[in-house]
Write a structure and sequence with these properties.
It is a multi-pass membrane protein. It contains 13 helices and no strands. Helix 2 runs parallel beside helix 7, helix 2 runs parallel beside helix 13 (265-288) and helix 12 packs antiparallel against helix 13. It has one domain (7-288): Farnesyl Diphosphate Synthase (Orthogonal Bundle), CATH 1.10.600. The protein is mostly helical.
Length: 289
């Protein structure tokens, strides 16, 4: 049986910025409109964190039973390493989805019933990313899903449940966060091109190739900085987001210099921290503005 430390590692805590940053950005967009409902904001954070941990356990389970993780370089894989049984990891995934679903139901009951449909789509998207007979993550569509779910849905959803509406400011924040969240997956898949190709996992990185994937990663890192400039139309304080540029450059360095395998792991963490920093700085700027 896996130890508590192994379970924590298997939950991939380095991906938590992908859950926290959208909520922070959504709150910032909401504060630009007016008063934010803070207990709903807290529930939105629980939903986001529960879903991303559920996604990580789900991927661990599905990739593990397919043998995709047998030679994987990177964070702890519970099934692939044999530390935990597939069934235990699958149960952990659905426990997390269940926690997110319960909190989401509370938000839907106090905000709008159609949020239940959105939540159900999110859970299905999380499971079928690597689960099922034809996982879309194996077809090169994972980046699209990440941009939609951890960018558009998470940011605009947070803005909606906290202030009752969405606007173009929230959309700009969603594009910025979604691009960085996608960048996390891109550099992860860049690192795994050799093993993914061998196991038949045709991610976007496998389809594009090494050089094009590195260029794509750089473009994704530029998008939030562009959004900071776009948001000047709402408030000049949005330029605070540009202060995240050094962190974005740090995240780009291993990719730019041709690092491979374990050498790209640092870029994963740096991209996540840059995303969180951009979200916080942008939220502060929008709130002040």
């Amino acid at each position: 049986m896996a130890t508590p430390t192994q379970w924590i590692a298997g939950a991939r805590p380095r991906t938590l910025p992908n859950a926290i940053a959208p909520v922070v950005a959504g709150i910032g967009a909401g504060l630009h409109i007016g008063d934010v409902n803070w207990w709903k904001a807290a529930l939105a954070a629980v939903v986001a964190i529960a879903f991303i941990v559920g996604v990580n356990f789900s991927n661990d389970y599905s990739d593990g039973i397919r043998g995709t993780d047998d030679e994987r370089v990177g964070p702890m894989r519970l099934v692939g390493s044999g530390a935990a049984s597939p069934e235990a990891v699958k149960h952990a995934a659905f426990l997390c989805f269940g926690i997110g679903a319960v909190c989401g139901l509370v938000l839907a009951a106090t905000t709008a019933w159609w949020l239940i449909v959105v939540g159900a789509i999110c859970i299905a998207g999380a499971w079928f990313y690597t689960g099922g007979s034809k996982p879309y993550g194996y077809l090169g569509l994972g980046e699209v899903a990440v941009f939609v779910f951890f960018g558009l849905v998470a940011v605009l959803g947070t803005e909606y449940v906290t202030v009752g509406k969405v606007d173009w400011v929230g959309l700009a924040c969603a594009v910025g966060v979604g691009s960085l969240s996608t960048a996390v997956l891109v550099v992860n898949n860049l690192r795994d091109i050799p093993t993914d190709r061998e196991s038949g996992k045709n991610t976007l990185a496998v389809r594009m190739g090494d050089a094009a994937t590195r260029r794509f990663f750089g473009v994704l890192l530029l998008v939030p900085l562009v959004m900071s400039v776009v948001l000047v139309a709402a408030t000049p304080w949005s330029l605070l987001g540009l202060l995240a540029a050094p962190l974005l450059w740090k995240a780009y360095q291993p990719v730019r210099t041709g690092a491979v395998g374990p050498g790209l792991i640092a870029s994963l963490g740096a991209t996540g921290m840059a995303m969180l920093a951009w979200a916080v700085l942008t939220a502060v700027g929008l709130a002040v503005g």
